[in-house]
Amino acid sequence: MESCSSNASTKVFFLVGFPALQDFQTLLFVVFLLFYLLILVGNVVIITVIVVDRALHKPMYFFLINLSVLDVLFTTTTIPKMLAMFLANAKTISFRSCFLQMYSFHGLTVTEALLLVVMAYDRYEAICNPLRYPAKMTRRVNIQLAASAWITALLIPVPVITQTSQLAYRDTTRVHHYFCDHLAVVQAACPNFSADFQTSLGFSIAMTVSVIPLWLVTLSYVHIILSILKINSKEGRMKAFSTCTSHLLVVGTYYSPIAVAYMSYRADIPDDVHVMSNVVFSILTPLLNPIIYTLRNKDVKSAVKKSIFRKIFPLSKRTNLFG
């Protein structure tokens, strides 16, 4: 039996991964590699199109760039290590790397929640205060809102993760997860009152930073819907609401798997279900965001088509075709 200590320099974490799927490592590697490539390509396309097309230089799309950058960073925090686990059975991770991954994952998770709030606020100003919108949502204000979301979210996990790093661990600690999730690592620590307290504290903070942003988004959309209902023409109401549908779908894809992930931790269910619920959460939203904004947003869809057309038909050829 390994002894417990808080000496970080000698600690290694062993990521158990998916115990029930040990015979499908190659298939898992192929599937998650495909997902990762789709996430990278989809979000890079969104970023590139918005940067290149001046018609998309609006607050809504500035925040969408932030969301796409976030999704790339978020998945890069976990998926490359997963791929190494599947391909080379590289399941160990050093103490410092584990806590860096933990901080990045949870910090970026909170960042997404706060960015969704900022995007909801942008839609609120655009629909509820259309005449004041250009003067209110200036470039400086947009940068301040985005920066506030990033900085606040990246500061929130610091105290809890710092305290978790000071718990006692075995020289090789088995973590029943595919990455260094906070609750999974705390549950793998040597049993004591501090570990139990960290479990409750971590769950409480996670619930708080999920529920409060969701409440703010909901409050924004209550005001938005009330404003839309005051529009006389049906066409005007549909046009106003259509600018919000992409954001609402993204909010839904973000909070649905996160609710399942939280419930799975509080229920007496197998470890594989805990792990899989987190996999769905960490991959589904970054995978669907580019699809949602490409298919549901007319401006982005048009810009993507225009960019593809320019690649297929260079400027000289287009001049001949139309001239």
From TrEMBL:
Q: Where in the cell is it found?
A: Cell membrane
This entry carries the following GO cellular component terms, namely:
plasma membrane
Q: What is its main location?
A: membrane
What stretch or stretches form a coiled coil here? none
**Membrane topology listed for this record:** Multi-pass membrane protein
Q: Which PROSITE patterns match?
A: G_PROTEIN_RECEP_F1_2 (PS50262)
G-protein coupled receptors family 1 profile domain segment(s): 42-293
Which residue spans traverse the membrane?
Answer: 27-52, 64-88, 100-121, 141-161, 201-229, 241-263, 275-295
| Gene Ontology MF term list | G protein-coupled receptor activity; olfactory receptor activity
Q: Which UniProt keywords are given for this protein, alphabetically ordered?
A: Cell membrane, Membrane, Olfaction, Sensory transduction, Transducer, Transmembrane, Transmembrane helix
The cross-references to Pfam families, in alphabetical order and at most eight, read: 7tm_4
* Domain of life from the UniProt record: Eukaryota
- What is this protein called in UniProt? G-protein coupled receptors family 1 profile domain-containing protein
